[in-house]
Design a protein that fits this description.
- This protein has 344 residues and is α+β, with helices and mostly antiparallel strands.
- It has 14 helices and 9 strands.
- It has 2 domains: 207 residues, Endonuclease III, domain 1, CATH 1.10.340.30; 116 residues, Nucleoside Triphosphate Pyrophosphohydrolase, CATH 3.90.79.
- Strands 1, 5, 6, 7 and 8 form a 5-stranded mixed sheet that branches. Strands 2-9 form a two-stranded antiparallel sheet. Strands 3-4 form a two-stranded antiparallel sheet.
- Helix 2 packs antiparallel against helix 8.
- The protein starts with a helix and ends with a helix.
- One of its GO terms (molecular function) is purine-specific mismatch base pair DNA N-glycosylase activity.
- Its cofactor is [4Fe-4S] cluster.
Length: 344
């Protein structure tokens, strides 16, 4: 097929030199794919290298404490990926004798592995004829074939998955899958598209019909909810503070934070001081670190955040030394505060 052949020819000249391109070891491919989900290569590459250095095989990752894994992941976001990564490593190491499943069907059974990741591992490591479908592939297929079905719907997934499978080079699925992903990442980009030197432009529907800026179509997401977070940063005269570990099903499960008070609307200094006084027997001073809310934007919610500093004489036994803060995995929102606040 002209489409697949053109892409693989382009790839042979323009492919990026990436560390996981030099191996078909399932552990390395799986690790790279999990890290690069919803993450650009420029940001994800240092994390991949750090994980490989710290955990060169799946058994080493499985044996690592979860706090260490989350700490190494810190800053990548979507922390459920890190938790699933760890759980899957333990399953492969302990239940599958360190051997990853060797088929798309069985790879899908792994925690945190969906259609895209299973297709990538199956095709790259085992040469299985499974087409990948990620944001880059959606964009290339939508523009080239002029498909305006929204990509973030179940119907859209089925349409594009079938189209991707039709175009797959069955003789070399690994090469083709990596070619179309690289092509979308570097040539057929979301903006500033390089149509003038594109080898597919003459037969591209979007280019011929001036739809490059229109395709692919994506339905608008719901308006994110607004939440008000008040972090209580206790400081004692002997340089101690409190951290608490998040539990439940939230996005930061397993990470640490300063004690949190969530309110329905912004809270005043007076009202917060009254609330703290009800639960605080010793004298304290309350001051606000940031007079303007720090807005931390997530896909489904915007966190309007204040950090309140509470100076006290002493803290209970479950407090930690301020010097130990750097050892705990924390959300990037907390990490930035720790960097900005002078704890000396």
């Amino acid at each position: 097929m002209v489409f697949s052949q053109t892409l693989t020819n382009w790839y042979s000249i323009n492919k990026r030199d990436l560390p996981w391109r030099n191996t078909v070891e399932p552990y390395r491919i799986w690790l790279s794919e999990i890290i690069l989900q919803q993450t650009q290569i420029k940001q994800g590459l240092p994390y991949y290298q750090a994980f490989v250095n710290a955990y060169p095989d799946v058994k080493k990752l499985a044996d690592a404490p979860q706090d260490h894994v989350l700490k190494l992941w810190q800053g990548l976001g979507y922390y459920s990926r890190a938790r699933n990564l760890h759980e899957t490593a333990k399953h492969v190491a302990y239940n599958l004798n360190g051997n990853f499943p060797d088929s798309y069907k069985d790879l899908l059974k792994l925690k945190g592995v969906g259609d895209y990741t299973a297709s990538a591992i199956a095709s790259i490591c085992y040469n299985e004829k499974k087409a990948v479908l990620d944001g880059n592939v959606y964009r290339v297929l939508s523009r080239y074939f002029g498909v305006d079905e929204p990509i973030n719907t179940s119907k859209g997934f089925k349409v594009f998955k079938a189209l991707a499978q039709e175009q797959l080079d069955s003789n070399n699925p690994a090469n083709y899958n990596q070619a179309i992903m690289d092509f979308g990442a570097t040539q057929c980009t979301p903006k500033k598209v390089q149509c003038n030197n594109c080898p597919l432009s003459e037969s591209c529907v979007a280019y011929r019909k001036d739809l490059v800026d229109v395709l692919p179509v994506k339905l608008k997401a719901k308006k994110p909810k607004k939440k008000y977070y008040n972090f209580l940063v206790y400081l004692s005269t002997d340089n101690k503070t409190f951290l608490e570990q998040r539990t439940g099903k939230g996005i930061w499960k397993g990470l640490y934070q300063f004690p949190l008070l969530e309110t329905e609307k912004p809270i005043t200094h007076t009202d917060l001081k009254k609330q703290i006084a009800n639960n605080q027997k010793q004298a304290f001073d309350l001051r606000l670190f940031n007079t303007k809310d720090i807005v931390h934007k997530l896909s489904h919610q915007h966190l309007h955040t204040k950090f309140w500093i509470i100076d006290v004489q002493e803290l209970s036994e479950n407090s930690i030394l301020i010097s130990e803060l750097k050892n705990y995995p924390v959300p990037v929102l907390i990490e930035k505060f720790i960097e900005a606040f002078n704890f000396s």
